[in-house]
Write a structure and sequence with these properties.
325 residues, Rossmann fold, 2 domains, 5-stranded mixed beta sheet, 4-stranded mixed beta sheet, 12 helices, 20% strand, globular
């Protein structure tokens, strides 16, 4: 199988699905002539034309609102939020229209909408570009939330998302676009939602993460192994639906858990993970669950970003703490 970066895998998924289904179309800021600010849609407009790869004004509410109308009309729109932080400008459309319309119409108008949105730290973006806001959208019943960590999963999950009858928020880690590279089949395949992946086997501590935090946990696990600590790394892949069974099994296997997220500490999805383990696997725990997250402050300027985003040292410190308890 060829080795692809995550952005190449995403582009391949879009191209193949647009070829397979002429109802699929892409819209967003700079997705057409420019090919996207990260080139995720590069070459698609020249191949499929401006009616299926549509450049829009800088107006996120309009982009998602247009996607709602397109879905009602029978299309399969894939709108792009240039950055997840900009999705606040379209929160009404996402939470109150996209997530609810299928139920509101009693299934007459399902929202076949896949919203792509890059996010995350480590690339020194300006303000409002890197915020990890996934928990805010998890709290929108009716919306599925997908967080790939590998190029293989990015393609398979994106194909699954576009074909899913329910609306999907597909969050893509900025750091992973070109730094993450793995084997990706050239042909058609999907990765099912609600199925977590064991990224690394281990016996002493379970590290739970999603998106770019998965690679962070793997690097921290390498450091921990030098100290004789064996870490399992569980990649949730999707937050909605949530693979509770795999999470509980991983927590029970080691009895010690560290949850790692890029988002600010309070109210992040990590809290949901902790609550689930407490409810479902409490008697298997050998130590309190530990969370590693960004501080409860607004996302900082690029020059001090490294002090905000969780790193290997902070994850390793949490691993040591749960092992010693």
């Amino acid at each position: 199988m060829p080795m692809l970066t995550m952005v190449e895998a995403i582009r391949q998924a879009l191209e193949q699905e647009m070829e397979r289904d002429d109802r699929v179309m892409v819209l967003g800021e700079d997705v057409g002539r420019l090919g996207g600010v990260f080139r995720a849609t590069d070459g698609l407009q020249s191949r499929f034309g401006p009616e299926r790869v549509l450049d829009t004004p800088l107006a996120e509410g309009m982009i998602i609102g247009a996607a709602v109308g397109l879905a009602i009309s029978g299309m399969r729109p894939v709108p792009e939020m240039q950055f997840l932080g900009f999705a606040h400008e379209a929160y009404h459309q996402i939470a109150d229209q996209v997530a609810r319309y299928g139920l509101r119409s009693q299934g007459r108008y399902p929202m076949h909408v896949t919203i792509r949105a890059p996010f995350g730290g480590g690339v020194r973006t300006p303000e409002l570009h890197s915020d990890a806001l996934e928990a805010q959208f998890v709290h929108c019943p009716g919306l599925k939330v997908v967080m790939p960590a590998t190029a293989y999963d990015a393609k398979g999950l994106l194909l699954e998302a576009i074909r899913d009858p329910d609306p999907v928020l597909f969050c893509e880690p900025l750091r992973g676009y070109r730094l993450v590279k793995d084997e990706v089949p050239e042909g058609d395949y999907t990765v099912p939602f609600g199925s977590a992946r064991v990224a690394r086997e281990g016996t002493d501590v379970t590290l739970v993460a999603w998106s770019a935090a998965v690679q962070l946990c793997e690097r921290a696990a390498d450091l921990a192994s030098d100290e004789g600590i064996s870490c399992c790394v569980l990649d949730l892949r999707t937050l909605v639906p949530f693979d509770v069974e795999a999470l509980v099994a991983a927590a029970e296997a080691t009895g010690r858990v560290v949850v790692v997220q890029e988002a600010a500490f309070t109210g992040g999805f990590g809290a949901e993970v902790v609550a689930t383990i407490q409810e479902e696997a409490f008697y298997s725990l050998e130590a309190p669950i530990c969370r590693v997250a960004a501080p409860d402050t607004p996302y900082p300027l690029a020059g001090v970003e490294e002090y905000y985003v969780p790193d290997e040292a902070r994850v390793l410190a949490a691993i040591r703490r749960v092992v010693r308890q």
